[in-house]
């Protein structure tokens, strides 16, 4: 007897189960396919979700030391509504956050921007900012040190409308001014996490706006040497001791909220993927039931010669378990292959699997095997419960 035969002789139930499955190849293949789909669904959704989260979280890189300060509006306040920050309040922020960069921001929603050829740029957001170079890197052109008369354009506005440094743009602000500006620079792409949405914006010097108050302020610190938490706490202490007058929103908090939201969505999608494994369990249970019915006589003979109920149940559970193991063995590499494709598409690195993503694939494999084994319990119990005489009739 060969070594393989000696090993198989120790697990006769598995040998018998494998033989029985090979007698109904088509049904076994369909049951395995159902498990494969379930394992791939859970693993791929998990890995893809992790890759997407990494891709989106990367947009927050560089804004970890940034916070946005906006005035608080109380609709029940008496007197004129004040939704702006004064120059004195900006100075108080600078004093409270010694060492931080505090940039006042003006934003006009009633502006019309036209390119040199006369085309309007309906999606452009007009903002006034003191020194864009203190907050953004320049992709093309140069921002003058004494920036007073030119415009700085965000990457998306520039790319969409073929605007380059040296071009002219005309900006008309309702009731304020209608002027042409030379484009001094185009900014690097910032992504959706930028609190000022610079990609969609055209920046002008603050002196171009006929207003002495500001809509918001950007507070920025070097995250390697200073803490935005401390700067935010200083502003809170300075302005909100008696009554909340400003909101301080840190970019890092937005990132945490985003990650929490996406984790919830990912869990939901994985739950949906898990339904496919429930369907696989039903398919396997149906396969086992049909197999038990077709083998009633065989099982009756087994029971008549002394096979205990437990052995019959073990046999059918082993058959279901083999289907689950084969399905998981095929589904795991498929999930890794599809996950590698998603990593390449979203992150540019097919091997950028996270520990959480790998755990989702493992979870899909374990879930696939467990549901398969559970699916074999009822058919096994039903077949074993039949009296040998009834089975042989």
Q: Quote the distance from N terminus to C terminus.
A: 39 Å
Strand content: 15-25%
Q: Give the rounded overall mean pLDDT.
A: 85
Number of strands: 11
**Mass-distribution shape:** elongated
Helix/strand class: alpha+beta
The Rg value, from CA coordinates, equals 33 Å
Q: List low-pLDDT spans.
A: none
Largest sheet: 11 strands, mixed
- Number of helical regions: 11
Keywords: Cell membrane, Membrane, Transmembrane, Transmembrane helix
Pfam families: FtsX, MacB_PCD
Family: Belongs to the ABC-4 integral membrane protein family.
Domain MacB-like periplasmic core: 28-236
Q: Brief overview, please?
A:
The chain is of the alpha+beta class and 393 residues long. It has helices at 3-9, 12-22, 25-57, 87-96, 155-161, 228-239, 251-294, 296-304, 309-347, 355-385, 388-392, and strands at 66-71, 101-108, 111-114, 125-129, 138-141, 151-153, 168-173, 177-187, 201-204, 216-220, 246-250.
Spell out the key features of this protein.
single chain; 393 residues; alpha+beta; eleven-stranded mixed β-sheet; 11 helices; 11 strands; 53% helix; elongated
Tell me what you see in this structure:
The protein is α+β, with helices and mostly antiparallel strands and 393 residues long. It has helices at 3-9, 12-22, 25-57, 87-96, 155-161, 228-239, 251-294, 296-304, 309-347, 355-385, 388-392, and strands spanning 66-71, 101-108, 111-114, 125-129, 138-141, 151-153, 168-173, 177-187, 201-204, 216-220, 246-250. Strands 1, 2, 3, 4, 5, 6, 7, 8, 9, 10 and 11 form an eleven-stranded mixed β-sheet that branches. A hairpin with a 3-residue loop joins strand 7 (168-173) and strand 8 (177-187). Helix 7 runs parallel beside helix 10 (355-385). The protein is elongated, with a radius of gyration of 33 Å. The mean pLDDT is 85. The chain crosses the membrane at residues 28-48, 268-290, 311-338, 358-378. It comes from Halogeometricum luteum. It is a multi-pass membrane protein. This is ABC transporter permease.
């Amino acid at each position: 007897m060969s070594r393989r035969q000696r090993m198989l002789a120790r697990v006769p139930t598995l040998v018998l189960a494998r033989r029985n499955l090979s007698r109904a190849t088509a049904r076994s293949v369909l049951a395995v396919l159902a498990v494969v789909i379930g394992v791939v669904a859970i693993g791929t959704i998990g890995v893809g979700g992790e890759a997407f989260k990494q891709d989106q979280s990367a947009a927050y890189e560089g804004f970890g030391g940034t916070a946005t300060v906006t005035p608080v509006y109380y609709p029940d306040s008496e007197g004129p509504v004040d939704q702006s920050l004064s120059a004195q309040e900006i100075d108080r922020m600078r004093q409270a956050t010694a060492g931080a960069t505090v940039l006042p921001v003006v934003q006009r929603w009633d502006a019309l921007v036209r390119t040199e050829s006369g085309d309007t740029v309906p999606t452009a957001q007009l903002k006034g900012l003191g020194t864009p170079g203190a907050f953004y890197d320049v992709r093309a052109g140069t921002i003058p040190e004494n920036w007073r008369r030119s415009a700085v354009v965000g990457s998306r506005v520039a790319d969409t409308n073929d605007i380059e440094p040296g071009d002219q743009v005309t900006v008309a602000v309702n009731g304020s001014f209608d002027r042409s500006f030379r484009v001094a620079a185009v900014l690097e792409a910032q992504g959706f996490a930028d609190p000022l949405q610079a990609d969609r914006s055209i920046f002008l010097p603050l002196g171009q706006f006929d207003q002495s108050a500001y809509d918001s302020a950007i507070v920025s610190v070097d995250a390697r040497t200073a803490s935005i938490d401390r700067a935010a706490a200083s502003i809170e202490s300075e302005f909100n001791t008696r009554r909340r007058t400003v909101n301080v929103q840190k970019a890092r908090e937005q990132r945490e909220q985003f990650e929490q939201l996406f984790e919830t969505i990912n869990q939901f999608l994985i739950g949906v993927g898990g339904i496919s494994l429930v369907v696989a369990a039903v398919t396997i249970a149906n396969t086992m039931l049909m197999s038990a019915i077709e083998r009633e006589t065989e099982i009756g003979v087994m029971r008549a010669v002394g096979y205990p109920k437990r052995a019959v149940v073990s046999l059918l559970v082993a058959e279901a378990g083999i289907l689950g193991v084969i399905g998981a063995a095929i589904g795991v590499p498929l999930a890794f292959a599809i996950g590698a494709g998603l990593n390449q598409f979203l992150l540019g690195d097919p091997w950028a699997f996270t520990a959480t993503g790998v755990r989702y694939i493992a979870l899909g494999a374990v879930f696939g095997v467990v549901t398969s084994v559970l699916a074999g319990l009822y058919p096994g119990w039903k077949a074993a419960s039949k009296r040998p005489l009834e089975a042989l009739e």
